[in-house]
Design a protein that fits this description.
The chain is built from four helices and two strands, in the order ααββαα. With 87 residues, the chain is mainly alpha-helical. It has a domain of 54 residues. Strand 1 and strand 2 form a beta hairpin.
Length: 87
């Protein structure tokens, strides 16, 4: 799906996260607007912007097969962590 800017279908649900949690503001952590943590955005946005070129460079350096295996191992680790948290 092409991204047609701010009002693309991909972006229309995002304000809903802030609006959906508006009635539960007293139960949510500080610095939150609905279900959107402003502290999380303030920390993750600059870090993601800084690290993204390194990830892209690494992805282009690896072969397709190496990238598939690396991503598969990552998914296995995440799923194992999830299973352990259920126990």
């Amino acid at each position: 799906m092409p991204d047609n800017g701010l009002f693309s279908p991909r972006n229309l649900w995002k304000p809903g996260l802030a609006l959906a949690g508006w009635s539960k503001m007293a139960l949510l952590p500080p610095f939150s607007i609905g279900y959107v943590s402003l502290l999380g955005v303030a920390i993750m946005a600059p870090v993601s912007s800084f690290i993204a070129p390194y990830g892209a460079r690494l992805a282009h350096r690896l072969s397709k097969r190496q990238l598939e295996i690396t991503f598969g191992i990552f998914l296995l680790l995440v799923s194992a962590r999830f299973v352990v948290s259920l126990l």
